[in-house]
Amino acid sequence: MKKRTLLVIFAALALALAACGGDDDNGNGSGEGAVPTAEATAEAAGSTGGLSLNTAPDLGGGPDLATGPGGGAGDERQLPGCSDPDSEECPAPLDMPLDGEASFEGVSINYPSRYFVAAVGDEAGGDALIAITPSENYRFEEQAFFRVYFAESVDAALADLVDPDTAEWNAGALEGTIGVTLDAGQEPQRNTTIGAFELPDGRAIVLQLDTTGKYGWDLFTRVYDGMLQTLTVAEAGS
């Protein structure tokens, strides 16, 4: 990717996040806080003199942009399917405070409540225990949707992924496998991530992330891994 294109992408994210800092002022998720046009972001990129890939801008208490390995949580692991953390061809992953908590039937997980809302039980839809979706404050072009549910087994949870990148993974007391599929055949591109962790009764607890757009997965690697670290299942063997 050409350097100028990369600057345009980073400028767009920086401007979108800065706009989100005024959520409390306008009281809604639309209008003046919308993501700027391509022309505006190009102009902004040209006026910054360049955005460093190694410096997280101060966004007034909102999420910041930071580079680093996808493994997160202070280690050097990298999630499967994640772009090279030293590459200049993708945006740096978002690092959002996981200040919200959702729980249902002994399963709990933390999530970034400033930009997402949680639904549990019947309101989560389908077989999901917990569904976490963008709120009105979320204004990124790349969308992200999280679901927590039980599967019959780790293999069963991963069976729907087509030719995924996979890696063994541990998240706190949970051990299992993460699979990632990047499907460029849809418009916008859809990226599916399934982390499945075996429980004592043979079932698996699953955290699924669906993102859209070419850079959806790259942006949310830190958020996904951080949420995994908070995922707990009470009395899993009963």
3D architecture notes:
There is one protein chain. The protein has five helices and twelve strands. With 238 residues, the protein is an alpha+beta fold. A hairpin with a 6-residue loop joins strand 9 and strand 10 (190-198). Helix 1 (3-20) crosses helix 3. It is globular and about 45 Å long. The protein starts with a helix and ends in a 5-residue tail after the last strand.
Kindly provide the radius of gyration, computed on alpha-carbon positions and rounded to a whole number of angstroms. 18 Å
Structural classification: alpha+beta
Describe the biggest sheet?
7 strands, antiparallel
- Characterize the overall form: globular
| Strand order in the largest sheet | 5-6-7-11-10-9-8
Total of helices: 5
Overall pLDDT? 73
Secondary-structure element series? HHHEEEEEEEHEEEEHE
Query: Are there runs of 5+ residues with pLDDT below 50, and where?
Result: 1-12, 14-75
Name the beta content range.
Answer: 25-35%
Strands, total number: 12
The helical percent reads: 10-25%
Distance between the termini: 51 Å
